[in-house]
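Hello Y.,

Per our agreement to keep a running log of every chain we model this quarter, I'm adding this entry. I've kept the format consistent with earlier entries: sequence first, then predicted structure.
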Amino acid sequence: MTELPGLKREELDVLQADMDDESPQILGALVRRALREGALDCHLTSLHMKKNRPGTRVELLCRPEDRERFVRYLLVETSTLGVKVRRVERYALPRHQEQILIQGVKVRVKVATLDGKPIRAVPEYDDCLHAAEKNHLPLKRVLEEAEARCRHMIE
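Predicted structure for the entry above:
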């Protein structure tokens, strides 16, 4: 495994479960809970499965120490009878969090760096949504204001 200067390298596990008989309500709740409980990513993909059935693939990215907990979670919370696991290598930009005020509401901003210099700043969507709702403003306006402030953080 090659080190790339300025990037964070980590070994992670991808858990995959395919099913053709699970409720969309269950799958939606599963993604939300998995992310809340520490999955690094979780998403659903539509599939065409055997016997010409539409299906869904759940892919969950987690740290190796969380693998067993999430495998059990997928087996208990879905109709799948098995979970595939593969180890992956991920390179990521180092990042930290800052805060800005948008319409009087604290908005968290993820700031990604490369070689110690900020190259990307992204406002947290949920915080922008909260600011929009609290101030009875269009979400689009709040996002534009936050993104403009973020651009100044990397210039």
